[in-house]
Description:
Layout: H1 3-22, H2 27-35, E1 49-51, E2 57-60, E3 68-69, H3 79-89, H4 101-114, H5 124-133, H6 140-156, H7 159-169, E4 176-177, H8 179-187, H9 196-204, H10 218-234, H11 240-248, H12 263-270, E5 280-281, H13 286-301, E6 307-315, E7 320-325, H14 353-363, E8 371-374, E9 393-396, H15 397-402, H16 406-416, H17 418-427, H18 454-465, E10 469-470, E11 484-485, H19 489-500, E12 513-518, E13 524-530, E14 534-542, H20 553-567, H21 592-595, E15 612-615, E16 621-623, E17 629-634, E18 640-644, E19 647-653, E20 657-660, E21 666-673, E22 679-687
Parallel strand pairs: 1-5, 3-4, 16-22
Antiparallel strand pairs: 1-2, 6-7, 6-14, 8-9, 10-11, 12-13, 13-14, 15-17, 17-20, 18-19, 18-21, 21-22
Helix pairs in contact: 1-4, 3-9, 3-10, 5-6, 5-7, 9-10, 10-11, 13-20, 14-16, 14-19
Amino acid sequence: MTGRGRFRSARTLFALALALWAGGGLRDAGDRWVAATVLPPLQVATATEILARDGQLLRAYQVADGRWRLAVSVDRVDPRYLQMLIAFEDRRFRSHAGVDPLAALRAGWQAVTSRRVVSGGSTLTMQVARLLEESGTGQITGKLRQMRVALALERRLDKDQILSLYLHLAPFGGNLEGVRAATISYFGKEPQRLTPAEAALLVALPQSPETRRPDRHADHAEAARARILARAVAAGVIGADQALAAQREAVPTRRRPFPAHAPHLADRVAGPVSSGLSPHRLTIDAGLQKRLEALARDTVAAHGARLQIAMMIADHRTGEVLASVGSADYTEEARQGFVDMTRAVRSPGSLLKPLVYALAFDEGLAHPETLIDDQPMDFAGYRPQNFDRRFRGTLRVREALVESLNLPVVALTEAMGPARLMTGLRRAGVDPRLPGGGGRPGLALALGGVGVTLEEMAGLYAALAHGGVARPLRVSAGDAGAGTRVISAVAAWQIGDILAGMPPPGGGGRGIAYKTGTSYGHRDAWALGYDGRHVVGVWLGRADGTPVPGVFGADLAAPVLAQAFARIGRRIEPLPPPPSTALILSNAALPQPLQRFRPRGAAFGPDPGAPAVAFPPDGAQVELLPEGVLLRVRGGTAPFTWLADGVPVVTALRSRDALVPLTGPGFVTLSVIDANGRSARSSVRLAMP
């Protein structure tokens, strides 16, 4: 519009203001005119918000048109900002009916005397009308429409409701709308408490949001802020000394990213993004979540570009999830950070062993002090081996679990049946995925031959921690209910007592009951642990499931577990005392059936006193040294005869050890026969050193 056109508009506005001020003869017609006003929609779309348990913003989603507009209320905005806003924009906001006749007269008089538009005389209500309809400000027809809508708004809404609309819709530069989006982006905080400098800048920005953007035009923003501060001093909102101090405060020169904590969990809770939804308040502890996310980033930084991590912390007494990290960086493509690894199906390695032992305790098959054999076994063609391919002979069940031996746990699984383990997993809330999509579970189930998720493992270990009762882990408020009993309270305490006796993970975290696991092919490294209140789960690997050479749960995941417990910020809560019914005895004092584990069909099995080849174990590779190969027999009655491929190499041997020269290299079957004619054999491969 030309200068002359603006002048004519100003004259018209002045005349309209006089008419409104006179008002008497036109009041009835004006009432009908206002009553007939068709208002724009008064419901403002705001971002879907994900909040922590204390109300802190974890994540927000833009409204449909890509703007940042967050819900806010008048009582959650700094009162000093509101005082500055009203003092500068609309001093009589609380008393006028939508149009301020005095401001309109002043604007018209200034235009007549100056022959240019000095001020538009717009009230805050008129500005809300313009923002609701996204109309311009310069045309007289637009101004008349704003007046009409403003008058109608004042009849429909109270002053705080009108002010709330302004707080939601005022532009602050770029795609920022509303005071809360502005304070989070420019100052990194909510609008409840603002400095005088911050409040003044927020008042100045909506007048010219693009030319005063502090991240692009800091000098313009600072000059506009100074004018607001001067007006605030004149209005008595702040003192001159406060204004002087505010002038020295630097304006923000960059926009901060909006919070994006627990992004995978937020996506899951929010579902398809839509505006106007009520905030989702979760059980997440905002401070703990941030600390755990920092730990995740620090952990993977030193291990190449593809290693990924996931972690969870829950209160096992209530089932509330306190922190959930699905990946080290949600936006990082190389690590496939968008994949939520807390819900990815992976092999648990040795993590199921504590449940196997607990079920065996409840079945009366064993006790922590029961003796059990770790020796070569053949389960109908299935011949598992320990990770290091060594055998420990006879030892206590407690030691077998601490050392995570494979043979004893498979023997217990066979004794009670793999289906019993599957039932235990399901009662704990685990959905076990068998290889090939179904079929009957086999004994390999006990060694990790099943698919599970970190979330499910955290739930399982929460059940172990909570006296054997599983409660679904939850992220929303509510009662988790009584839960489902998986194992007895005695068995749960016995497992916790054993796991708490392991060397502290990573040299720290004394008093934590924990177990590590490494899946076949080094694809997954796990550590799950708990104290008297919290359960923590850690997984490391690659999101695409490819192997990570050299990765072990004990070496990589266990130290992270200890650090995660340290991030909780509390001392380690002690585990509960033993139940009154717990049988705390030495092996010799146990009832006879519990002193030594024997499978249920043992009466029809081999003679327990028969000899066994202690070394070299079946299937081992042995170095062929010049001085010979060490042969060792366990059990049986001396003297012993050793044969190699059926040919006697030692006879009438009273000792249980012998150093025997053997030819090779190649495969050889070693046999030992005792004085009673009982025998055992071992097939090994001889290799040159």
